[in-house]
Amino acid sequence: MPADSTATSTGAVVRAAIAAAARAPSSFNAQPWHFTAHPAGSADQHRVDLALDRSRVLAVTDPDAHQARIGCGAALYTLRLSLAVSGHRGDAALLPDPADHDLIATVRLDGKHRATPHERALATAVWRRHTNRRPFLDRPVPPPARTALVRAAAAEGARLHLLERPTDLGAVADLIRRADNLLSQNPAHLTEARRWVGGTGHGDGVPATAAGRPPSPDTLVVLRDLDSPATPVPFERLPLLAVLTTVGDSDGDQIAAGQALQRVLLTACVEGLAVSPLSQPIEVPTTRRALGEVVGAPAHLVLRIGYGHAGVTTPRRPLDEIATGLAEEKRA
């Protein structure tokens, strides 16, 4: 194959991988990432830089960009996965520039990779995965599926604590309720949240079609109020809750948590499970610390997991808004 054909082929792979990475989850679907594609030079491989887009960090809800870095980590894992199933090994360097902590990672296409059937299944799930804010069935998640989720987090250097003891489940449910109540009394948070909820045609945020229905007052776990006009309905009586943690809470730990989150979510999708992230206790410093004390490690997110009816995906911004260098890749 001529050299220019090889470059064009690789450029198309990079473009497709960035499109897949943009399907990653993020708080309020803010999509706080920017990609820069760099064609191969005479002494360098193709590479993709992933940066935190500060203009899309929620200043009130996420002042330290904790959740934004988790979203970027989820996008990074998806980028790596997409490259892998395209036959490329993606060598990711986290926080490669000590002077620029908003440069999340640099991923170099470093040789060939033979994708496994499991990697292909996860990559297919990228386009089906979505946050499910609807009621789940009162059907327990079987042990093999629970094990698969725990292993998915561990593979990316994190831990998924399944809350199987009633005391732990009750404690975390109380923290979610407490945080949700505090947030609902914060006018600045409410104003910021409304910016991202209910709109259409913007390519970001949570549209009304994805907001789900509010839970009835007797529901154990409080979901975020997304101003849905629908009548409250009963949710599952005993949900499976899980807390995602890492050993530390540095920027790198938060990026690792994001990679683990996406691997867990895609694994859940492959297993036929629905997931609803619950970030309220992470958004309030006191409840975040208390949540970490319950599980014994820095906590990054609570997940509600179960079997549910299909929901809808949220929109994504066009590639030319989230990436640069793709035109050069296409012409190479």
TrEMBL record:
Native organism taxonomy: Bacteria, Bacillati, Actinomycetota, Actinomycetes, Pseudonocardiales
Record Gene3D superfamilies: NADH Oxidase (3.40.109.10)
NCBIfam families with a match to the protein in the record: Rv3131_FMN_oxido
Family annotation (InterPro entries): Nitroreductase-like, Nitroreductase/BluB
Native organism: Actinokineospora auranticolor
GO molecular function: oxidoreductase activity
Taxonomy, superkingdom: Bacteria
Disordered: region residues: 196-216
Designated name of the protein: Nitroreductase family protein
